Structure formats: C-alpha cells, structure tokens
C-alpha cells in the first residue's frame, strides 16, 4: 500500500507585519493537507532549519544560514525602502558615540540584529558590547546605552516618548546604501517541493491571494491591529501601506548586498545565493 504523504507544515510569524500573507489564506480549503504553527521569528528559523516546518516567512538571515536547503517564494516578503516603523534602535546618545557602549538586542530576531551590527561596524566603525535580553525597553535601557526592538514590541515602544533618540534601521540602511531591505522572506524546504510540488503550488497561490485581498482593502487588518495592539486607525493604515510585500529584482539586489556585508564581517560563513522557486519548480539561482 502506498504511504500517504504527510501534510505540509506551515510556520507563521507572530507579528503584525506578516498578516497580509495569512489574513485571507484559505486554511479550511486544505483540510489535513497542511498544519500551521505560530512562533516568533527566531523560533520559526530554528524549526525550519531542523525540518520541523516546511514553508513559512523566516528571517532573511536564517535563509542565508541554510540556503542550500531552501527555495524562496517570489512576490512575497516583508521589505521596505527606507522606514519600516517596527525595527527601531532606541539610544541615549548619537549613533557615532556608541563605540564600546552596551547595546541590548532582542532574542526574537536574527535579520535585524545582524543589520544593526552591519550598520554600526561597516558604516560607523563601531564595536559596542552586545547583550541579549527580553524585549522590554524600560528594562533594557536600565543597563544600556541603546536597545533594539522589532515587530510589535518596537511599535508599542515608539508610541511612548521616553526621551530617547530613535533610529529606524530600514531608513538607515536605505540612507547608507540606496537599497531595499528584505527582513523576512517566504521560504520552502527543497524536500517539500520535490515530494509535493502541486500542493506547494496551491499553497503559494493561497498566499498570493491573501496578500492581494489584504492590500486591496486594509479595513479588517487595521481594525484587528487596533483591537490587539492599540494605536490609531491612521497609524496602522500607514504601517501596512508603507511595508512592501513583493520580492522581485530590486529586493533581491538589496538582500544580496546585506548577505555580502554579513559574510565580510563573519556573520555568515559563505556566499549566499538566492534560489527562487518557480511555478514549474525549476530553481533559478541569482548571481
């Protein structure tokens, strides 16, 4: 008797910035063909690397660590050209004065932590003392000169004026390089593509349809974000409109520059190639 293939396991990041990819995803249409797990980015990164998740939006840096095992869905990412509003460094003194100071990093991210290190090292020639901590700004800043927050933690902290300088890392990256930055990309393990190509294609189409419906009318997303996190309608409307959920040549170029810098500084141990999934399941490697 032929063994029935197991369901494809989808990972979901527990942050508002990926809502458009999931909000209208037709979960019920897939029944037992899929399983969904919700985690913070670092948890999802680990699960994907271990093969416990087959598809999901993971930190871009995590793709760089294991890219030989993955393909990337085109037309899906969490990217920005300039301000992101949810990747924020709070600091007591200007960036250029942070050398040899204590900078607190959240335990919830990989891409943004390394983006901060790239910016401070490569562009400001700084070597702070980095310390990981739970993402609570008040606690972090008791013993630090700067603290990085991402996602919903950063958004809520930005609504409180605690007297700190605030640097949006998306804006800083674009100012310094002139490029886009992709913070999360939607990745598939190659094994899942090889074993269940048609199911992978249907899942991809479900994500694209969810993205299209979400961005076509943001009303429901905005109301849910206000209910869950607070804030104004105008804030959330601007937040979702400002982020880019595409992943094409402009985003590829910016991400490859990020990978190049990460490798130069020793954060990645090899050159990263972008393996883009296509409808016919042919891998295209961008150089």
UniProtKB/TrEMBL annotation:
<protein>
    <recommendedName>
        <fullName>Chorismate dehydratase</fullName>
        <ecNumber>4.2.1.151</ecNumber>
    </recommendedName>
</protein>
<comment type="function">
    <text>Catalyzes the dehydration of chorismate into 3-[(1-carboxyvinyl)oxy]benzoate, a step in the biosynthesis of menaquinone (MK, vitamin K2).</text>
</comment>
<keyword id="KW-0456">Lyase</keyword>
<comment type="pathway">
    <text>Quinol/quinone metabolism; menaquinone biosynthesis.</text>
</comment>
<comment type="similarity">
    <text>Belongs to the MqnA/MqnD family. MqnA subfamily.</text>
</comment>
<dbReference type="Pfam" id="PF02621">
    <property type="entry name" value="VitK2_biosynth"/>
</dbReference>
<dbReference type="InterPro" id="IPR003773">
    <property type="entry name" value="Menaquinone_biosynth"/>
</dbReference>
<dbReference type="InterPro" id="IPR030868">
    <property type="entry name" value="MqnA"/>
</dbReference>
<keyword id="KW-0474">Menaquinone biosynthesis</keyword>
